[in-house]
Amino acid sequence: MKFLDYIRMVNASLVQHKLRTGLTVLAVVIGSVAVISVLAAIITVRTVFEQQLEASGALTRIIVSNESRMNEGPGGGGPQAIPPGQQGQEAVRLTPKLAARIAALPHVTAVSPALRVYPIQSIRLKDGDGKQYAIENITAIEANAAGTMPVAIGRFVKPGEMRAIVLSSGYAESFGLGANPRELIGQKVILKGKPGEPLGTRPPPTKSGEPVDYDENQVVEVTATVVGIAGGGPGDGSESFVSLEWGTALMTRYFCKFEEPRKGQDPNDFDESGEKQCTFVGENSIAREGYSVIGVNVDSVANVAGVASEIQEMGVFTQTAQDMLSAITTVLTIVGSILGGIGAVSLLVATIGIVNTMIMATYERRREIGVMRATGASRRTVLTLFTLEAGMIGFWGGVIGLGFAMVVRLLGNAALNAELSGQGLAEGNYISFPIWLIVGVIAGTTSLGILAGVLPAARAARADPVDALASGG
């Protein structure tokens, strides 16, 4: 018997028992859709994250920190191993000198130090309703090729720009401009410092050469113009940005220090007011603590790992987009395994349904089997016929399940792009089914059908022709 003859007979048998075949195929459809959904979700999440990283230039960016868990500044990441030779040693400060060393490395195109501005406690719109809102994160960053973050509206701060700020997207809604966030551009906001934080202001001079004690109850406010609203890149959901120069100024504290006596001058001399001469000396957090993080741009993705390794040899930590992707992949694999197990249970139930259907078919078609054997059909022919019938149930279940998933894919892409567009992120065909998934699902459900049909088919092949004809089934 030719293969096409087998297919024709199998399809005729399936059509003859529409209800039973339909219910069995439906079970396979449910199982295949469950598996497709899990795999597609994992692929989609990774694709969205990877494409957004690529759009923001993060794939060629390295974030340098002196902490094993980087949680400050743009592009924070996860835990890392201690760099070689640094176990038990004091963390290396991220100084301007270190930034210059990194900038001199081969394949490094730009270096952008960043500083967390922590003395600010709240923000309000200058011409608004007067309500104060907690400030979440303000990062002062050198706005060059390695430090310019994506903005949804307006522009990013310029290098050296003072009293300008790029706000995180949440403040537009807080200020009552959620429907028209563009109206926030050009408006002024008041940044309120924490009590005792001078925000770069000079205290009154003293007679002592000791550091000036700022009034711990004094609250300083500064005004800034909104030039942009952050968006379109990872890590900007609650982060606002100012220039490194202004951030450094806000983090500067001034101390009163004696003027050193000039050559030939009596150290006990006093000025006309009877006080020793005193000058203000500014000290910012970079001098005290170093930068929070340093952003590094590399000329190509292929050179990122090598540059990161060279930077680690300086005794600091690095975080790359590939590290983040690996961490996300690990999480997705765990979640996918759990959800995939649920989908596998659905396919197991469908397989049991195919076994039951084919066993019932062998009982109902005993006379047909007897006629086939009496007219010269071999046991192998009967075995092949019933095995193919079970495989066909699995095949159609996979095809229909895949077709249903394709419809969901179209609707899902439309909904996802609408959401991404509303957040100022790039649109794309994120939900997709690679060829291996399409072929794998159909091949998998067909194989399960064939395996489920082997036992009933073997039972039918072993039937005695005389007993089968006499059964009247």
Write the layout of secondary structure elements.
Layout: H1 3-16, H2 18-55, E1 61-65, H3 96-103, E2 108-116, E3 120-125, E4 133-134, E5 137-141, E6 151-154, E7 164-167, H4 170-174, E8 188-193, E9 221-230, E10 239-243, H5 244-250, E11 253-258, E12 278-283, H6 285-289, E13 293-298, H7 304-312, E14 317-320, H8 321-364, H9 366-374, H10 379-422, H11 435-461, H12 465-471
Parallel strand pairs: 5-10, 7-9
Antiparallel strand pairs: 1-13, 1-14, 2-5, 2-13, 3-4, 3-8, 6-9, 8-9, 11-12
Helix pairs in contact: 1-10, 2-8, 2-10, 8-10, 8-11, 9-12, 10-11
Please characterize this protein's 3D structure:
The protein is an alpha+beta fold and 473 residues long. Strands 10-5-2-13-1-14 form a 6-stranded mixed β-sheet. Strands 3, 4, 6, 7, 8 and 9 form a 6-stranded mixed β-sheet that branches. It has a two-stranded antiparallel sheet with strand order 11-12. Strand 3 and strand 4 (133-134) form a beta hairpin. The chain has helices at 3-16, 18-55, 96-103, 170-174, 244-250, 285-289, 304-312, 321-364, 366-374, 379-422, 435-461, 465-471, and strands spanning 61-65, 108-116, 120-125, 133-134, 137-141, 151-154, 164-167, 188-193, 221-230, 239-243, 253-258, 278-283, 293-298, 317-320. The protein has 12 helices and 14 strands. The protein starts with a helix and ends with a helix.
